[in-house]
């Protein structure tokens, strides 16, 4: 018996196939994860992401603390209230403890980290906080529903108050603001427009039901994984972990090297790696024939003894063939070989981004 | 509880066999198997005219979750394969015992089926796995 979100009974009632995910009983699908995937790309789907960990950072040093804690720089958020930033939280060796989203809420910040990493994240955040005047407060009383897809914002706006709908209408992409008893972020993990809505747990079942009645498809973790993979988004524990540099995980863009005087955890190690071009890199792989690329399959590159590895692989419902993310030697060319079920199969190498806003981008 | 058909024979690896009126044998995967695999995305069947043998891999089914080898319950020559699965592999999910069949065999020796599980034994196997 795992942890249960406020929507556990709702998932059961709606026919969700519940599985263990990082210690939580979560829906894998409600019948067909491929149909759920298409609903998100074509209209709207929703995900229970209440298992994710919400942490508020308050206190006079909140900004300075996050500037030291995170590889990306929260100063980038100063110009817009509610603006959000994606960042790695690194250890002193430059490995990724977790990836997260942080919202600037004026004199405080809201951080959303993964569920499977919750305990070590909180331990690390509290340890680093000792040198700063900040308070770290977990918000387990909040449920979170991600409503994603081209129709998501229109439908969600029709189910909230006029004031809350006005807040939604005001949001730019990657911005989130409190609105009554909701916190509404224009963020997601699917490559589609949409919202992530935090709300008091006791209100989650009724809101979920209202979304379903308005035509939003309940979706499970299966569709969430194929959607994020098509969008080329990393999943902690697959594309990166504490032993992987963000430079080897397509997270170079999340490292704020400027201003040079900003000291952040892991900076010294990353600067040396960058100068030496010493890390592997993350690429996309495409297999247009029969077969499905899977995590942990070994990648061979012509002219290199060094092997790569598939970090996530799946059948892409939007494209109709298999795609993968792989950590490979930097000298990889346009094609490579993957060992699949005892055979070497040639696959195409592409940028790690396959589908955005309903359209193929490869 | 998954659907188990009384008239079929089963393998512990979750394939079923049905003896047709003409003495040929149809092979597919069970309702339990399709449910455990999730959405099926590719099916690789043996070629018509090729031979399949008990204990040897006869095909592959790939779902969003995993790839799984398919075994036959009788040895013999493949006389038909379900071509419709190439364009509509999801039929394995929606109709595992009927439209979602995999291939049909002219058996060398029908008595090989006596080694397979009957419906009650297969049900017992599933219950013991739970």
Give the tags.
heterodimer, A: 362 residues, alpha+beta, 6-stranded mixed sheet, 6-stranded antiparallel beta barrel, 21 strands, 32% strand, globular, B: 130 residues, 6-stranded antiparallel sheet, 3-stranded antiparallel sheet, 4 helices
Give a brief rundown of this model.
The complex is a heterodimer of chains A (362) and B (130). Chain A is 22% helix and 32% strand. By secondary structure, chain A is of the alpha+beta class.
Would you give an account of this structure?
The complex is a heterodimer of chains A (362) and B (130). Chain A is built from nine helices and 21 strands. In chain A, helix 2 (33-42) packs across helix 8 (221-230). A six-stranded mixed sheet of chain A has the order 10-11-12-9-3-13. In chain A, strand 1 and strand 2 form a beta hairpin. Chain A has helices at residues 8-13, 33-42, 62-69, 118-129, 152-157, 162-170, 204-213, 221-230, 267-276; strands at 17-21, 24-29, 45-48, 53-58, 84-90, 96-104, 109-113, 135-138, 142-148, 176-179, 182-185, 194-200, 217-218, 281-287, 298-300, 308-316, 321-328, 335-340, 343-350, 355-356, 359-360. The model of chain A has no long low-confidence stretch (mean pLDDT 97). Chain B is built from four helices and nine strands, in the order E-E-E-H-E-E-E-E-E-H-H-E-H. Chain B has helices at 31-37, 84-87, 91-94, 119-129, and strands at residues 9-10, 15-19, 25-29, 40-44, 51-52, 57-63, 67-71, 76-81, 103-107. In chain B, strand 6 and strand 7 (67-71) form a beta hairpin. Chain B is globular. Chain A binds chain B through residues 28-29, 32-34, 222, 226, 290-292, 294, 314-315, 341, and chain B through 38-39, 41-42, 44, 60, 62, 64-67, 90, 93.
